[in-house]
Automatic annotation (TrEMBL):
This is Heparanase-like protein 1. Endoglycosidase which is a cell surface and extracellular matrix-degrading enzyme. Cleaves heparan sulfate proteoglycans (HSPGs) into heparan sulfate side chains and core proteoglycans. Its main location: membrane. It is a peripheral membrane protein. It is found in: Lysosome membrane; Secreted. Belongs to the glycosyl hydrolase 79 family. The keyword Kinase does not apply. InterPro entries: GH (IPR017853), Glyco_hydro_79 (IPR005199).
């Protein structure tokens, strides 16, 4: 099925260093976001959010429930542009609980909004029943006022009163929040608002004290995340140095490296390996800065939708986006980022689940395969062929061997792939190729009808679709003798698990 259809170059050698890992992700690396945008959030003459917000999403939709259950432990980050305008209906905040309304003078064009505790209860019922792991983004502008002299700068200390009451309520209900994050896109020069780094660092100490005080003897010890904004080296360094050791567990930054959602060049960018590589510098800079100024913490991608302003219509929700998204997961792992949160689980054009029908888009299945197959141990992987073939390898998740992700960006060339290992340097054996022994599992992903803009995807030539009872389909691999040729068709993605790949780095699996 996957060979002989297109001209192939001579075999491409993918080399995996199997003796040591180069990085380690969190066990729940894949993460998706839920956002606050109301239905009247519009970009480019479209309003793609519908009823997909934290406040109005149908939490009983069977596809939503089954999608979360399919992961077993999907990490969800609750937050987004409007989070710094959210009141929590508890304590002194219990008197009025307004909805977000359009206000051209408001931040992001909206008034303040509010999270009712009844809704918070309903959300936690869903999270609890599906095993979801929650990061919650708190309002970081509480108590501050806009500077008269300095653009979008907000001055003054953070007022933790409402957040404290909200966290206290959450604890009183025994809801598990894995991590609390402060603020959204206030770092550096900010987006609609900004806060100075030293002040932010001081505010993180205040939040840490609130957490320590409230959680005290509790068995829960939530992590603290900050700042949930775009990476700015000096700002991040100053914020980490000010907050000091043991306060911030993860430095969260956001990636929107494809530009605006209405860019006519989106697909060209996604298929251009040189363009995809440009953002590697940001991952590397974040890793180095956190290592230098906050070695007690680690970098996470707290939000990434590829294209900003709700994503690209018929691009961010289509098969072609998988070239960008899965490449990002591979690249972020290589630079020791522990978590990667995709904007969004539902809502906008970059949704994993369709905003109106809830039917999974191709990237949902790509995310699920990563979650099921790619373990935390990251292996150094190179290929000697074309830059249009991307290759990333991890220790297999909770199973023996190694899983290789291959992405073929070329629209005309298939690649015959041979996999080798640095173990050959240590262990003489007949034949030099690690992949020759035992069998392997192959998951080949292609666009329905070869149309890159299709919202349907084939797994090993078979359409991925919900079962009649709205369950996520079970994704079965093709089992292949390890000696058989491994061919990656043009414009396709493959996860390949080599069951008997000898990898000392993965011995703990």
């Amino acid at each position: 099925l996957f060979s002989g259809l297109s001209p192939t170059l001579g075999a491409t050698v993918v080399s995996i260093k199997a003796v040591t890992t180069i990085a380690k992700t969190d066990d729940n690396f894949v993460c998706a976001t839920m956002d606050w945008w109301p239905p009247d959030k519009c970009n480019y003459g479209m309003c793609p959010w519908g009823n997909a917000s934290i406040l109005n999403l149908d939490l009983n939709n069977p596809i939503l429930v089954n999608a979360l259950k399919a992961f077993g432990s999907l990490r969800i980050r609750i937050g987004g542009s409007l989070q710094d305008q959210v009141l929590y209906e508890v304590g002194d905040g219990a008197h009025a609980c307004p909805d977000f309304k359009i206000d051209k003078n408001g931040l992001f064009g909206f008034t303040e909004g509010c999270l009712p505790m009844q809704r918070w209860d309903e959300l936690n019922k869903l999270f609890n029943s599906t095993g979801s792991i929650i990061s919650f983004g708190l309002n970081a502008l509480a108590g501050r006022s806009k500077s008269n002299s300095s653009g979008n700068l907000y001055e003054g200390q953070w007022d933790p009163t409402n957040a404290r009451d909200f966290i206290k309520y959450t604890l009183s209900k025994n809801y598990t929040i894995e991590s609390w994050e402060l603020g959204n896109e206030l770092s550096g020069s900010g987006v609609a608002a900004s806060v100075e780094a030293v002040q932010y660092g001081k505010d993180m100490i205040v939040l840490k004290n609130v957490i320590n005080d409230l959680y005290g003897q509790s068995k829960q010890h939530p992590k603290l995340l900050a700042p949930g904004g775009f990476f700015d080296k000096k700002w991040f360094a100053d914020m980490l140095q000010t907050s000091g050791p043991g306060v911030i567990d993860a430095a969260t930054h956001h990636i929107y490296n494809l530009g605006p959602g209405n860019d006519k060049d989106l697909i060209r960018k996604i298929q251009d390996p040189y363009y995809l590589d440009q953002v590697a510098q940001t991952f590397n800079d974040a890793l180095i800065t956190v290592g230098e100024f906050g070695p007690w913490s680690s970098p996470w991608i707290g939000e990434s939708g590829g294209a900003y302003n709700s994503g690209g219509k018929s691009v961010s929700n289509a098969f072609v986006d998988g070239f960008w998204y899965l490449d990002q997961l591979g690249m972020a792992s290589t630079y020791n980022h522990k978590v990667y949160c995709r904007q969004s689980l539902i809502g906008g054009n970059y949704c994993l689940l369709d905003t109106t029908t809830f039917v999974p888009n191709p990237d949902f299945y790509g995310a699920l395969l990563w979650h099921q197959l790619m373990g935390p141990g990251v292996l150094h992987t190179t290929n000697d062929g074309s830059p249009y073939l991307r290759a990333y390898a991890h220790c297999s998740k909770k199973k023996s061997g190694v899983t290789l992700l291959l992405i073929n960006l070329s629209n005309s060339t298939a690649f015959d792939v041979v996999v080798t290992s640095d173990l050959n340097l240590y262990q003489p054996r007949s034949g030099n190729e690690q992949g020759q022994h035992g069998e392997r599992e192959e998951y080949h992903l292609t666009a329905q009808g070869g149309d890159l803009r299709s919202s349907e995807m084939l797994l090993n030539g078979k359409l991925l679709k919900l079962t009649p009872s709205f369950e996520i389909p079970h994704m079965e691999p093709s089992i292949v003798s390890a000696g058989a040729p491994l061919t990656i068709a043009p414009l396709s993605i493959a996860f390949v698990r080599f069951k008997d790949f000898q990898a000392p780095a993965c011995a703990g699996n």
